[in-house]
Amino acid sequence: MRYAFLFPGQGAQAVGMGKDFYDSFATAKETFQEADDLLKEKLSTLMFEGPMESLTETRNSQLALFVHSMALLRTLQKQLPSLIPAVCAGLSLGEYTALCASGRLPFRETLFLIRERARLMNEACEKRPGTMAAVLGLSADEIVSGVQGLSGVWVANFNAPGQTVISGTKEGIEKASLVLKEKGAKRVLPLSVHGAFHSGLMQSAQEGLAPFLDRALLQESETGFVMNVPGDFVTGVDAVRQNLKAQVTHSVKWEQSIEAMKRAGVECYLEIGCGKTLTGLNKKIGVPSAVSIEKIHDLEVVHAAT
């Protein structure tokens, strides 16, 4: 069976994330401690105890989600060493976790790269405040045409059929919401996020991140890598680097990414990390088997599925 290992993005974080794995598996505990030591701060304490307001801040949530997913992944690999992914992918921040999980960048370097990404995006959120909203009930093409010509709004995520996310200034999102409802959108739901991710408001973060990506010691890997911006498989270190840069301000093509994996013969999709968002999206896209690994008891489901 061909497996995809998938990793969630910002917004999936929750107080208590990973505490059960920390308490039960030495591999997970070592991963949390490794991150704390490298960062010289108790990220694990914030993850386990909160407060949620601090955990949700971009500069904390991105690191937390990466460390959490990697702790679960390492535990899974210890428990089921024969379970090897044919492809790795992640949603937004999760793409960096996939970068590490696929062997393209070591844990230490990925952690520090995410720290810079989170810092720069946090600063961009403060400099140019914005928000995001999920649009339900319209096709992606209808949403793209609906916001075309509107100032301060971009299409941020093509998540699944009937679910697309827009991003931009508060005024831009409000105007777009009215236009899209007039076009037949069932709902336009504001998202609880720190800023307007994957939009032009993140331009300063993209420019600031570029030198760090240029210096990142990316490696080739035999594990397939599907990336957000093209929504397809990407090969070659230079192409990976350029797509990581573009991802900060460009749309995330998740639906297209999953369709690319389906065409490549992937049969089972494992979401490793907080929440079940990707598993829900993947079922809407029509994958043959979707499993999420968030709690210890989920390991039994994976055992059964494999």
What does this structure look like?
With 306 residues, this protein is of the alpha/beta class. The protein has two domains: 230 residues, 3-Layer(aba) Sandwich (Malonyl-Coenzyme A Acyl Carrier Protein, domain 2), CATH 3.40.366; 60 residues, Malonyl-CoA ACP transacylase, ACP-binding (Alpha-Beta Plaits), CATH 3.30.70. The protein has 14 helices and eleven strands. The strands form two sheets. It has a six-stranded mixed β-sheet with strand order 8-7-2-1-10-11, with helices on both faces. A five-stranded mixed β-sheet has the order 6-3-5-4-9. A hairpin with a 4-residue loop joins strand 7 and strand 8.
Topology readout:
Layout: E1 3-7, H1 19-24, H2 26-39, H3 43-49, H4 52-56, H5 58-79, E2 87-90, H6 94-101, H7 107-127, E3 131-136, H8 140-147, E4 153-160, E5 163-168, H9 170-182, E6 187-190, H10 203-215, E7 224-227, E8 232-233, H11 237-247, E9 252-253, H12 254-263, E10 268-272, H13 277-285, E11 290-293, H14 298-305
Parallel strand pairs: 1-2, 1-10, 2-7, 4-9, 10-11
Antiparallel strand pairs: 3-5, 3-6, 4-5, 7-8
Helix pairs in contact: 2-5, 5-6, 5-7, 7-10, 10-11
